[in-house]
Amino acid sequence: MTCVLCHRPDETENTGTLSSKENVVAHQNCLLFASGLCCENSPEFDDLFGFSVKDVLEEVKRGKKLMCCKCKKKGATAGCEVRRCKRSYHYPCAVENGAKTIEETEQGRFILYCPQHHSKTTGNGTSTNGSSPSASDQSPCQAGPSKKRTVGSPNHPEPSSKRCF
C-alpha cells in the first residue's frame, strides 16, 4: 500500500499511520497537513481519519499541478501557511526539509511553515509581530483551495464538533 499524497509505503513517526477506504490509501499526517482538505467527519466513523474519499481524490488532482520544493516531483499537497509563499511539498518532504509543523488540535488546525518562514513565527502559530501570517475574516475552509486547514465544513465557518485528531 502506498499513500496517494506522498507516494511512500512506509509508516513513520513523521507520516503517521496509513489508512485506506475504497482503494484510497493515505498517511494520517499527509491528510491533516494537505492544504486543500477539510475534515468533515469524525475519525471514529471513517477509515480515512474522517476525510472523504471524494475530497482526498480532489486533493490528489490539485496536487498533480504542484511540484515539491524538495524532491522536485509533482503531487505536492502541503503548502506553507504564509499566503504569499508558493512553496509546496509532499508532507514527509516538508519535514525532511526543515519545515515547522504546528498542531492546534483543540481548534482542529494543522499548520505548516516552510523553512524560510518558520523562523518568523512563534510557537503559537503567530508571526513575530503578533498577527497570523494567513489571517483572514473567512474560515480557512472558505479561504481558497491552497489554504484549507481547519477541521470543519465549508458550509459551517466555525469548526464543527466533529474533529480529526
Automatic annotation (TrEMBL):
Q: Which UniProt keywords apply?
A: Metal-binding, Nucleus, Zinc, Zinc-finger
Q: Where in the cell is it found?
A: Nucleus
Q: Where are the transmembrane segments?
A: none
Q: Which residues form the PHD-type domain?
A: 1-118
Gene Ontology molecular function: zinc ion binding
Low complexity compositional bias, start-end: 122-132
**Signal peptide from the UniProt entry:** none
Annotated region Disordered: the residues are 122-165
> What broad class describes the main subcellular location of this protein?
nucleus
GO CC annotation, single: nucleus
**Family matches, as Pfam families:** zf-HC5HC2H
Spell out the protein name for this chain: PHD-type domain-containing protein
Q: Which organism is it from?
A: Takifugu bimaculatus
